[in-house]
Amino acid sequence: MAVHEIQRFSNSERFWHITGAATFIVLAVSGLGLYARELSWLTVLTGGPYLSKWVHFLAGLVFALCQVMNFVQWRRDCSEWAEVDGDWLRKSGGYLWSSHAEVPEQGRFNTGQKIMFWSTSLESLGLLTTGIVLWVPFVFPKGIASLSLLFHAFFGVTLIMLIVIHVYLATAANPGTFRAMWTGRVSAGWARFHHARWWKEVDRP
Fold first, then answer.
1. b/e string for 51-84 if b means 16 or more Cβ within 10 A?
2. CATH number, domain containing residue 178
3. Looking at residue 53, what is its pLDDT?
4. How many angstroms separate the CA atoms of 7 and 203, rounded?
5. Total domains in the fold of the chain
6. How many CB atoms are located within 10 Å of the residue 103 CB?
7. What domain range is 53 assigned to?
8. 27, 58, 123, 188: which has the highest count of C-beta atoms within 10 A?
C-alpha cells in the first residue's frame, strides 16, 4: 500500500536551503582554518591559506544570497506567534521535561523552528556586516575593524553551534525530517505527528 505524502517544501525552498547549507560548510571550514591557528590545517581543504580567503569571501556572498531568499520565503510563516508558542516553550517542545503528547498542535513551523529561523537570520546579518568591514578594513576606523574581527568570530562560532543543533533535530532526534528538505515531501503520518495544525490545513477536506 502506497504511503500518502504531502508537499512540504517547494523546489525553490529546497534549492536555497540546500545551497545555503553547502556553502555554510565551506564557510565554517575555511573560517575556522583562517581564524584559529590550531585549526589552520583546515585551510588545506579549501586550497591553502591564500586561496581560502577568496573561497571564504565568495562562499560568503552565495550564503548571504541564500539567507536573503530563505528570509523572503519563510518570514511570514515564522512571524506567526500565538499562545501555543508559549505552551511549546514551557513544555520544551516535548524534548526535555515533557512528552510530545503534551505539546500543543503546531503550524507549518513549530516554535523551535521559528526561533531558529530568526536566530540564524540575525546571526547571518551580523556575519555579513562584519564581513564587509573585514574585507575593506581601510574604509573604516582601525577600532571598528578590530571589533568586527572579534564579532565576526563570535557570530561564526555561535552560528555553527546553532546549525549543529539544527542538524541533530532534523536527523537523529526526529527521523524523517531530513527527507522533508531533501525530497520536499513528507508522509501524512509525519505531518500529523509533528505539525498537526498545518496538516489539517493542507491535507484534510
1. ebbebbeebbebbbebbbbbbebbeeebeeeeeb
2. 1.20.950.20
3. 94
4. 10
5. 1
6. 21
7. 9-94+107-203
8. 27
d(CA 25, CA 160): 9
What is residue 114's predicted lDDT score, i.e. its pLDDT?
96
Q: Is residue 4 part of a domain?
A: no
The CA–CA distances, whole Å, from 53 to 59, 150, 192 equal: 10, 17, 46
CA 55 → CA 27, 62, 125, 127, 154, distances in Å?
Answer: 8, 11, 19, 16, 20
Residue 57 cell numbers, joined: 569571501
- Note the pLDDT of residue 172: 87
Mean pLDDT by 10 residues, the chain (205 residues): 83 98 97 93 94 96 98 96 89 73 87 96 97 94 92 97 94 89 94 92 73
Q: What is the pLDDT of residue 204?
A: 61
Whole-angstrom Cα distance, residue 167 to residue 163? 6
Task: Report d(CA 47, CA 5) in Å as an integer.
Answer: 43
Residue 205: its H or E element = none
